[in-house]
Amino acid sequence: MAEPGCLQRNDWVCGEYLTSRSELIVDATVQHVVLTVVSVGIGLLLALPLGVLAFRYRRARSWVLGTSTALYTIPSLAMFSLLLPVTGLTATTVVVGLVLYSLTILVRNVLAGLQAVPAEVVESATGTGYGRRSLLLRVQLPLALPALFAGVRIATVSTVALTTVGAILGNGGLGNLIYSGLRTQFQAEVLTATVLVVALAVLADLALLGVQRVVTPWQRSAR
After folding, report:
1. How many CB atoms lie within 10 A of CB 120?
2. Which of 3, 132, 167, 188 is the most exposed place for a label (fewest CB within 10 A)?
3. Could you tell me which CATH class the domain 11-217 is placed in?
């Protein structure tokens, strides 16, 4: 009588699971990456003008920071439930929720980066003829890149983790496998998906760190 395989024994570590469910794992990983990239990308597009608005107008600052912080305090399950009547049981619900969560981190880092630009640099650029728009685009935002990238890295790692919660709507990427494995007590599925989520977070952070080093060469020179 043949000895039962790791799937039959329900082992935590099982190579047979990887080979027999490879297509399912790849699809879940791709969905996880797409949800993360789209959410952080949209969040960054929204955070840039909001951060600039908060930087230029003190009255708007408290409103922008207060609203984004309030959104971050809403539990993820409650957030998705509030969005359901509008966006339904779709990936859009997950993306909107993740975008709103990323705004707290991204807006604050955009603001911090702009505030960290030395006043003498701004005065010098203004004295050489830079207008308000060119000053922002050619001086302040480039010098704010280190803080901005720090925010993007934190937001990305956070979004990789939060995406798993989307499994309650059937759009959680690797979270779908974790949720399914927990319901059926399928140990190999739970462990594999969890390890992949951690790996995605680490790889995303390292990739963004590499991009940051390329686009901020003056930081390497300073070191």
Report:
1. 8
2. 3
3. mainly alpha
Task: Tell me the whole-structure pTM to 2 decimals.
Answer: 0.88
pLDDT digits (tens, 9 = 90+) for 129-172: 778 888 888 888 888 898 999 999 999 999 999 999 988 888 88
* DSSP-derived secondary structure for the chain: -PPP-HHHHT-SS-HHHHHHTHHHHHHHHHHHHHHHHHHHHHHHHHHHHHHHHHHH-HHHHHHHHHHHHHHHTS-HHHHHHHHHHHH-SSHHHHHHHHHHHHHHHHHHHHHHHHHTS-HHHHHHHHHTT--HHHHIIIIIHHHTHHHHHHHHHHHHHHHHHHGGGGGGGT--THHHHHHHHHHHT-HHHHHHHHHHHHHHHHHHHHHHHHHHHHH-HHHHHH-
* Residue 213 CA neighbour count, 13 Å, CB half: 8
Indicate if the alpha-carbon torsion angle 115, 44, 80, 36 is positive or negative: negative
Any idea how long the chain is?
223
